[in-house]
Amino acid sequence: MSKILTHHSSRRDFLKMSAAAGVAGTGLFSLAGNANAADTLNLYTWSAAVEQVKSHLTAFEAKTGIKVNYSNAPWAQYRDTMVTKFVGKAPLDVMWVSDSWLPEWADAGWIAPINGFPELMKYNAEADDFCTKSMQYNGKQYGLTYYSDYMAFFYDEEKLKKAGIKEPPKTWAELVQQSLIIKKAGLSEYPMMLPMARESWLIEFLTAMVYSHGGRFTDDNGFALMDDPKKGAHQALQWIVDAVNKHKIISPACVEIGELNGLKSFGSGNHAFALLSRYRVRTLNDPKQSQIAGRVKQALMPAGPDGSHATVGWMRFHGMSAQAAADKARAANAAKLIEWFGGKADGKYQFQKMLFNDIGSGFGVKELFKDPAILASYQKYSDLAMYEKQQQLVKKKDVITRWFGEWDEVNGTAWQSAVVGKSSVADALKKSAQAWNQLKKQA
Fold it and tell me: Which domains does the chain have, with CATH numbers?
C-alpha cells in the first residue's frame, strides 16, 4: 500500500493553518445533498483505496439506509485539509486518522472518544494490542483500526546460500558477521540496506532499531530517555555508525536513501538484508516488479545485546468528529459507519480483508490470521506465520505528541550527523533529548 503513513507537520505549520482557516470561516465549505440531516453522514479520507471505499459504502447504504457523502484528498494535503475543515466547522462526521495526529486532534477537541459505544469497544478483544494502544490518548479511545503494519526485516535467501550461510541472523551482531562474509565473497558491496533519508519514514526505521536494541526514546512519563546510555538509543545509533564507518556493510549514502529507493535497491539485488515496511514483501516477490522475486524471506527483527525481536508498528483508524458526537442521532449513525469499516460488516471483517486482497495492506485483527483465503493468498509470496509472529512483538511509537513534528526534524538530523561523522553518538542523542525536553516544557 502506498505509504498510508505519517506526514509530520510542525506546530508552527499547524498554527498558521488554523489562523488561515479562521479567516476563511465556514463559507468555503459545502457538501452536496442534505449534509446536516442525521440520516446523511459525511466521510472524509485520503485518496487511497478509493474504489474499495466506494464499494464498501454502497453496501453500507443498502444495508442501513444511511446516506454517506464521501470526499477525499491526496495524502500529502490531507492533514492540512482536515485542519482547515475542523477550524472552519465544515460538516464532518467520520474520517481517517493517523495515529501520529491523535494527540493534536484530540487536544483541539476536533475528534471525540468512542468509549461510550460498547458496540465499538467490544472489538478491542479481537485487535492486536499495539493497535488498540495507538488509538488511545489520555485514557480514552478515539476509533477503530482498519489498517496497520510494521517495520520488518527481510533477507535474500539466495545470497545467504551462496555465502554458505544456513539461516538468517538472530542478532545484530550476527548480521554484521554474515554481512562481512557476504561482502568478502563479492556478493554485495553493502549487504545491509537501511534507508535513512530525512522523510516521514525515518522515525519508523530508527524506532525499530531502538526497540530491537532494548531501548526507548522516552520514559513512561514522556520525558526524554534517548540519551541514556543504558536505556535509550545509544546502542542502536552506535550499531548504525559502526555498520557504515567501521564494518562498511551499509552505504554511507544511506542518509540520502529513502524508503522507496531502498525498496528499489534491494529489489534490484544489491543487498542481502533490508529493513522495509512489511507490506513491501508483496512487491519484492513479484517477478514484474523485482529482480529477486521468490528469494525474499522475512525473519524476526534481529535483537541487540540487551534487546529482543521487537519492532515498531503504525496504524490508521476511523474516528468520529466532535461535531457528530454532540448530536445523539448523528453519533449513533457515525458509530454504525465506523463499525462497518473498522469492525465487522455483516459479521465479517470485510474491509480489512478487501484491502489485504486487493492491495496487500496489513490488518490489526487476530481473526484474519486464521482466514483460509488470506493464508492462501499470502503464501503465494510470503509466510503468514512469520507475519503474525512478528506482529505479536510490535510496539507503538513512544514519541507521538503534539510537538512530535518539530522534534522529529531535530532528531533525524542528529542521527544523520552521527552517521556521517559530524558528531559523536552521545552528542547527537544529547541534542535530540534537549530538543524533546524543551518542546515538552513549551507544550
Answer: 11-149+314-393 (3.40.190.10), 150-312+397-442 (3.40.190.10)
List helix spans (H) across 314-383. Answer: 322-325, 328-342, 350-359, 372-378
DSSP string over 117-177? -HHHHGGGGGB-HHHHHHTEETTEE--EEEEEEEEEEEEEHHHHHHTT--S--SBHHHHHH
∠ CA(233), CA(234), CA(240), 5° rounding? Answer: 95
Contacts of 401 (CB under 8 A, 6+ apart): 103, 222, 407, 440, 443
- Cβ contacts of residue 302 below 8 Å, gap of 6+? 153, 169, 170, 171, 172, 174, 175, 212, 309
For residue 373, CA distances in Å to 238, 350, 354 come to 43, 12, 11
**What is the four-CA torsion angle of 118, 124, 130, 131, rounded to 10 degrees?**
-70
Q: Is the dihedral of CA 419, 422, 426, 430 positive or negative?
A: negative
Q: What is the pTM of this model?
A: 0.89
CA distance 420 to 416: 6
Instruction: Say what angle helices 50-64 and 328-342 make with each other, to 10 degrees.
Output: 130
The model's confidence at residue 38, banded by pLDDT at 50, 70 and 90, is: low
Q: Which cell goes with 228?
A: 541514556
For range 377-399, the mean pLDDT: 96
| pLDDT > 70? residue 6 | no
Give the pLDDT confidence score for residue 34 in this predicted structure: 43
Q: What are phi and psi of 346, to 5 degrees?
A: 55, 40
pLDDT band at 37 (very low <50, low <70, confident <90, very high): low
What is the pLDDT averaged over residues 382-402? 96
Looking at residue 65, its pLDDT comes to 96
Beta carbons of 171 and 214 less than 8 angstroms apart? no
In this prediction, residues 301-330 reach a mean pLDDT of: 97
pLDDT surpassing 90 at residue 46 = yes
> What pLDDT sits at residue 39?
84
